[in-house]
Design brief:
Elements lengths: L12 E5 L4 H6 L1 H10 L4 E6 L15 E4 L11 H10 L5 E4 L4 H9 L4 E5 L10 E3 L3 H4 L3 H10 L16 H13 L7 E6 L12 H14 L2 E5 L6 H10 L4 E3 L6 H10 L2 E5 L2 H8 L4 E4 L15 E4 L19 H4 L3 H11 L1
Parallel strand pairs: 1-2, 1-4, 2-3, 4-5, 5-6, 7-8, 7-10, 8-9, 10-11, 11-12
Family: Belongs to the glycosyltransferase 9 family.
GO molecular function: ADP-heptose-lipopolysaccharide heptosyltransferase activity
EC number: 2.4.99.24
Length: about 350
């Protein structure tokens, strides 16, 4: 493979295929920045699922977001074919696939995009014009660097691993309004709690401990406590709020992702499981404490100088299982409220 494959003069219209999860998308922001700096004159479009698109809505490195309407026009067996036809009309010169599934390569292939770059995972080498070998060493590094390795494979230099997330003035104004509506007093510290996480319960610290932690931080830091979460987390947020003695603002399932990003930016500290919102907090430079158990704190830790990881190393962790195979989640059970609270208080 020629390492000068991506000559600026060859690429006028470029497609980036985003990853499908919020946290992964945030960790691709250094790669998106590097692509823009390598092609300053190109028109760059980014293809993303609807729930991920807000991550890039205010990005200065993307000219257009194309929504993969997985539950609409592009749903079902024929959906990817319809999407490929939609992309073909845009006459892209090249596609960089940050999403690793074979579907991403198949859609780019069917769209007739002449230059297609991505890792050679998921048996998709034949669908890519420039497959980049994904080695064991690459899989072992932090995911911000992992995505940059795709670009290095075709001669695009990395431009640092710092995360970048543009929240936008509209979301910032809305976040201010939400906190005012909920009675969070101006000038008072705001502590965010994020008790949810996708990929199963093994990633989630215990709700009752989040409740005890919220009460403690409200008392010791004179802080307003805000609970975060998506639409599926309303019951969880309500459960934790109901266990707390201190006043609490439960926003789980009550904000858009853009609003949640702006609210996290306003937090003085954020306590979270390994999750998409953890990476949002890291990207907007909010001091955070992340509780890790079943997942790998080397590859998916918050990439931030103001973050602290709390975990208890035991023999079976990280197991990368969505549900604890032993049934007792000992890796999480050994993480005490005291340790997490001290980590937050130390940050502040």
């Amino acid at each position: 493979m020629s390492r000068d494959f991506f000559k600026r003069s060859d690429v006028k219209r470029l497609l980036i295929r985003s990853t499908n999860w919020i946290g992964d998308a945030v960790m691709t922001t250094p790669a998106v920045r590097a692509i823009r700096r390598h092609f300053p004159g190109a028109s760059i479009s980014l293809l993303a699922k609807p729930w991920v698109a807000p991550v890039f809505a205010n990005s200065p490195h993307v000219d257009e977001i194309i929504v993969y309407e997985a539950n609409g026009r592009h749903r079902g067996a024929m959906g990817p074919i319809r999407l490929a036809r939609d992309l073909r009309r845009r006459d892209f010169d090249a596609a960089i696939l940050l999403q690793n599934a074979i579907e991403a390569a198949l859609i780019a292939f069917l769209a007739g995009i002449p230059m297609r770059v991505g890792f050679d995972t998921d048996a998709r080498r034949l669908l890519l014009t420039h497959p980049v070998r994904c080695t064991k060493a690459i899989k072992a590094i932090h995911q911000t660097g992992y995505y940059l390795k795709i670009l290095e494979g075709v001669g695009i230099p990395p431009r640092g691993q710092i995360l970048e997330l543009s929240v936008g003035d509209t979301n910032r104004q809305r976040a201010k309004e939400i906190l005012t509506e909920q009675g969070a007093l101006p000038g008072r510290r705001v502590i965010g709690l994020n008790p949810s996480a996708t990929f199963g319960p093994a990633k989630q610290w215990f709700p009752e401990r989040f409740a005890v932690l919220g009460d403690r931080l409200s008392r010791t830091l004179d802080a307003a406590i805000v609970i975060f979460g998506g639409p599926a987390d309303r019951d969880l947020g309500n459960h934790i709020a109901g266990m707390m003695q201190a006043p609490v603002v439960d926003l789980s399932g009550r904000t858009s992702l853009g609003e949640a990003m702006a609210l996290i930016e306003r937090c003085d500290a954020f306590v979270t499981n390994d999750s998409g919102l953890m990476h949002v907090a890291a990207a907007v430079n909010t001091p955070l404490v992340a509780v890790f158990g079943s997942t790998n704190s080397t590859t998916t830790s918050p990439f931030s100088s103001t973050s602290r990881i709390v975990r208890v190393p035991i023999e079976c962790s990280p197991c990368m299982k969505p549900v604890c195979p032993l049934g007792h989640m000992n890796c999480m059970r050994q993480v005490s409220v005291e340790v997490v609270a001290e980590a937050v208080e130390g940050l502040l």
